[in-house]
Amino acid sequence: MNPLVVIPTYISSRHSVPSDRNDAVVYDHTTPLMSEGELPRCLKSLNRVRGVGAVAVLVAAERGIEQQAAEKVREIASRFPLLSIMVVTAGELDIVRRRFEQLRLGRLEFEIGLSGYSAIRNLGLVLANILGFDSIVFIDDDEVIDDASFLEKGMYGLGKLTRRGIPILAKSGYYLNAEGNCHSLSQDKWYNRYWNQGRAFNQWIDQALAGPRLSRSNHVCGGCLALHKEAFKRLSFDPWIPRGEDLDYLLNLRMYGSDIWFDNKWCLRHLPPKGISEGRRFRQDIFRWLYEFRKMEYSRTQIDLQQVKPSSLEPYPGPFLQPGIEKRIRKTAKLRSIGRPDGKEYRKAAKVVATEASEYARRNCTRYFEFQYVWPEIMVRTEGDSILRNALLRSVVRCSEEGVIEPPAEQMMTASIDAGLTKEVRLNVSE
Predict the structure, then answer these.
(1) Does residue 40 have a cis bond before it (omega within 30 degrees)?
(2) pTM (predicted TM-score)
(3) What distance in Å separates the CA atoms of residue 85 and residue 41, rounded to the nearest whole number?
């Protein structure tokens, strides 16, 4: 297979956290415009990976600095002449949106774009579809790849069938931290009694690592995620979920009759810089889990969707999709406000449970399903679109050995697009 590697990078004016969609949408971390950031380290590691065809770096910049952010990322990309890098900025996005309008799809400014985790991922899916790739691999700019066979492992099993004839159309690897540990380091403190995600995750991943190489997954690492075209042509990411769009994609796939598989041989290192406070992150989680719970409840009223029960998602994330989530949030906020130094943030966060967060979930819980009626048509109309393809190929960054940016060479990207067919084989996996 021939994946498009997609790397979002988030640029802010200083150390601020850009958000122009709603107050619930905040990035975990951003790179200040005047800082080098983690992207060069990521690209340097990717440079050593075998079989990299094309890379798309999606530049999510704070309003007012889009041009400076684009120039910064293009300069970084120019340091890696062995990689065929397409830098996608507000300019390229505008090309896509104008073409959408010509195709009578509307501009889709909220659903597909460079603001918000899901909208950015959806833009990556659209790019892969336009350029004719048969798969896509998402990684994040704060990650390092040590394994030269990273892409080969990522493509293992993708698009093939299990022994029971079940297609594997989406798969996730896992993260290692700086110490080479894949476990959550969340402390098992008394104030986490009602919200111990770390313990539940560790229990799940220990089971998955001890099993066969490929097994049905309850977890998704959005920065180590591979999707076959038959998955992303059918399903988009949910633009209305504030964070956790990767795990949400797993739930969406199950509702629409598919699944994500976990590959316990596929991993990379996740080395994030210091980001938002835990209190601020918990506030986002309130929006996330209330929205997810409401969305799942609504999905069970739809006869054309598969029923996804929390019991099928034990030990994680099932407990966070069960009734009573509001009480657990309030209890956790109260305990953490007492036990943690940033307790003020938790007291503030608790106030949104019955107000903004609940209203946000109520108002938006049906919108993803409405968008899903449109998404397959978007994919059909843009697949291999020559007008969009030719316009986007102009943004491929090419450099000479001296580091001087040259005119983009379309043939390099075109060669990487020519995907080979894979033979259908039966895999030994846990079903």
Answers:
(1) no
(2) 0.90
(3) 15
